[in-house]
Amino acid sequence: MSRLDRGTQDRLRTAFDAGMSAETRDAHLAAIVSELNIGAVTIIAPTPWWRLRAASLAAAMLVVVPVGTAIASEGAGPGDFLYPVKLLVEPFRSVVDSDVVARHRADELAHIIDTPQEVNRLTDAITDAQDATSDLPADHRLRVYVEELTDTATDRPVHEDRERDVVVVTDRDASEKDERDADIVDDTTHEPTTTTIEAPTRSTDDTTHRTTTTTTTTVIDDRARETTTEATRDG
Amino acid sequence: MSEYRELDLLIDGIKSRSDAAFAEVYRITGEALASFAYSMLRDRPSAEDAVQQAFLELARSAPSIRGDGRSLRAWLFRSVRFSCLDEIRRRGRRPEIPTDAMPERVDVADGDPLLGLDSELEAALAQLTEQQRNLIVLRHVAGLSGAEAAKVMDMKRPAAYAATSRAEKRLRMLLEYVEYSPLPSSQPRRIRRT
Predict the structure, then answer these.
(1) Domain range holding B60?
(2) Domain end: B71, B91, B111, which one?
(3) Residues B66, A47: Cα–Cα separation, whole Å
């Protein structure tokens, strides 16, 4: 049995009898009525636990999601889903890191140079990188880096191939194209590189008094710097 | 009509901030609230202030009060408990129970029985924890149910029942010990609450 007996309960009630006087009660009631008569009521509702948790979760999400997205967008390049986020965050980051924009553009340019599939973005990337570093001192490491990347990009074989393709498609028609494949032509001038000189000479035999014409054909290969002479006798 | 039934009928009046409803709730619960506050503070004026504070807070929060009469009663006791804890914290020290006047051996036939019994009770209660004392007072002085006491003490219901049972058992043992084995005169004269 764990309950207290009635005697102990009575002793407890007696021991803790506050014994409020009638004056005290009246004063309390007057204060309560006064409080009730105040027009503007400030409601202090106890907040349910689930609402507190939901508010905490929402507050955490408000911090975690934007920060996480900003961090995730750090490695995004032009055309990526998070690239606009990266551009959006850059002005805020530049408050504490003034080189962030230049560094990002330089990194993007380096990435495009290393990725042949992205070669069509190269021109824009170079322009953007140069714009981003134009305000930096000439000897700034990012500016020097971008200049080196630009040099690397313009010297690339794939770049030359692209230029040649453009020339072929725009400057030559189909017959010239076939001709180029058949003949030895200079890629830049489209002129033949060989020169043919035909020199006929006439001579008379004294005994038979017959006249013979000999044609000497000389072919000069400009590129090989060689001359081939061939004589054919006529008559 | 039981107190709970009366409070159930008054809950709508409380929500609508009716003077009469508040006066009636004060009449029903005021004394028990004051006893509970007094058990915590051991100071009547401070206990009365805690009761008034609870009703003023109820007046401010009335429209948001939910539940029935039992919920209202538990809400008031909980508010009083927080006021008392604030007061104890404000005082910066725990109240000490003087036991100088405690008789070494109580003989009901020889002296004032009420005074002797109260002193024994005080000494026995001083051996309980604050939580145990509060549960004892809530259950046996204020007349709250186990569920209400759990709500007032911010405890899970099974934990409150178990703690109350342990407190009652300990109090019974302490009272029996005082009655049949009086403390020797060399016993420390003051017992600090734990």
Answers:
(1) 3-91
(2) B91
(3) 12
Q: Which two tokens stand for residue A153?
A: 């990009």
Q: What is the set of domains in chain A, with CATH numbers?
A: 65-160 (no CATH), 194-234 (2.10.70)
Interface test with A, best of B10, B14, B16, B44 (most A CBs within 10 A): B44
Q: Least CA distance to B75: which residue of chain A?
A: A46
pLDDT tens for each residue of B67-100:
887 888 889 999 999 999 988 888 875 555 544 4
CB-based contact, B36 to chain A, within 8 Å = yes
In a mutational test of the A interface, the residue from B15, B38, B144, B179 whose CB has the highest number of chain A CBs within 10 Å is B38
- A42-67: per-residue pLDDT in tens? 556 667 788 888 999 999 999 999 88
The number of distinct structural domains making up chain B is: 2
A30 touches B: beta carbon within 8 Å: no
Q: What is the pTM of this model?
A: 0.48
